[in-house]
Design a protein that fits this description.
Lyase, Ornithine Decarboxylase, Chain A, domain 1, nine-stranded mixed sheet, alpha/beta, 2 domains, TIM Barrel
């Protein structure tokens, strides 16, 4: 969108503001499905945790996707958005047996990554088919916090424990109908993905009743000019070939699944903030905005880079600024960035704000969460109202002293 259009949306809906362009989401979805056209049975399950607004979920249902959920609350969001339970997979980690049973009762596909829970669930509910999340013991991902397939990870059942899984399956009479892995996020090296694929398919070959194979996701998107991203087209060609060849040896059709989140929504999102004040120190010029890590934690939590543009004064000469927030902690969005001259009340735009941004917001410092706007068919829709003080008070019961 052009700067003028973005400024009009801020004028209409206020600041700070999250904005999502649905055309980009649809384009990314098509790019992924096109890359794996050689596979007859392909299913994309959008990872709800990336951006869980119910309207975004409804968009994915319209596009033909299923959803990947990690909490019972995300399952309920999916059902509210109109998804058939059969198009919802529940892939939690570290949750109680009771939460898994609640999800199973709703009719969604269960995915278990714990031998102890698997045995308990199999004993109580042998009639409910279950997918297994395995840990391939491969280090992949752009950050230690998002690398989840290595040997020290809390996620998945080790590939060295496959015999234990088979023993549980036999002892309980349960049916394992899917095998799943997720090695991490921001994966550049498709060879690492393909190595994990070989391991995963070898696991599948040890089970007789598999219906689908879930390869997780982790596809990297560009965060700045010249940034490298996952070569989806090349991965599509190579992985599709491996998968189709494996199906022939397995002897029956299988569904190929992915669960992308960031790849589908990251580039669709922009975060718009207003500059409160400019502060000059002996070493740094700070531009402080009406936001903080309570709204946009990724730069502080993951050291992630988000391109920042001054859309109010885009043609001015570039100067060096550190863009910071209003939280009573160090909350730096970008250090010593070259940005066109910033003045008080200018609007700054943060790119790649669609994934793991609003979904990680909080009310820290008792600040309100921002509004969310979706642009669909050229029209803007307010899909989440800006919070008020009543939202801060809600749920708190006062005690009279």
């Amino acid at each position: 969108m052009q700067n003028k259009s973005l400024l009009k949306l801020v004028e209409k809906h206020g600041s700070p503001l999250y904005l999502y362009n649905t055309e980009i989401i649809a384009s990314q979805y098509k790019k992924l499905t096109d890359a794996f056209k050689p596979v007859k049975n392909l299913k994309i399950n959008y990872a709800v945790k990336a951006l869980s607004n119910i309207n975004i979920l409804k968009l994915f249902r319209k596009l033909g996707a299923g959803i990947d959920t990690v909490s019972i609350q995300e399952v309920l969001l999916g059902l509210k958005a109109g998804f058939d339970p059969k198009n919802i997979i529940f892939t939690p980690n570290g949750v109680s047996l009771e939460e898994i049973e609640k999800a199973a009762k709703l009719g969604v596909q269960i995915n278990i990554d714990n031998l102890y829970i698997l045995e308990q669930f199999g004993q109580k509910h042998p009639e409910t088919p279950v997918c297994i999340r395995v840990n391939p013991h491969i280090m992949a991902g752009g950050n230690s916090k998002i690398s989840v397939g290595h040997i020290g990870s809390k996620f998945g059942i080790s590939i060295y424990q496959i015999d234990h899984i088979k023993n549980i399956e036999k002892a309980t009479g349960m049916r394992i109908n899917g095998i799943h892995m997720h090695t991490g996020s921001d994966i550049l090296d498709i060879d690492a993905f393909l190595r994990a694929t070989d391991i995963l398919l070898d696991v599948v070959s040890k089970f007789e009743n598999i219906e689908f194979v879930d390869f997780g996701s982790g596809f990297k998107v560009p965060y700045k000019e010249g940034d490298i991203s996952t070569d989806i087209e090349s991965l599509g060609v190579k992985l599709s070939k491996k998968f189709n060849e494996f199906i022939k040896t397995y002897g029956k059709p299988l569904i190929l699944m992915f669960e992308p989140g960031k790849f589908l929504v990251s580039e669709s999102g922009k975060f718009l903030t207003k500059v409160n004040v400019i502060k000059q120190t002996p070493s740094t010029v700070f531009a402080a905005v009406d936001s903080g890590f309570n709204h946009f934690i990724r730069p502080m939590f993951y050291n992630s880079h988000h391109h920042i543009t001054n859309i109010s004064n885009p043609k001015a000469k570039n100067k060096f600024y550190s863009v910071v927030g209003y939280i009573c902690e160090t909350d730096t969005f970008g250090s010593n960035r070259q940005i066109s001259e910033i003045r008080e009340d200018d609007i700054l735009c943060f790119d790649n704000a669609g994934a793991y941004c609003f979904s990680m917001t909080s009310n820290y410092n008792s600040r309100f969460r921002p509004a969310e706007v979706m642009v669909y068919n050229g029209k803007d829709f307010l899909i989440r109202k800006r919070e008020t003080i009543e939202d801060i008070f809600r749920g708190q019961d006062e005690v009279e002293f």
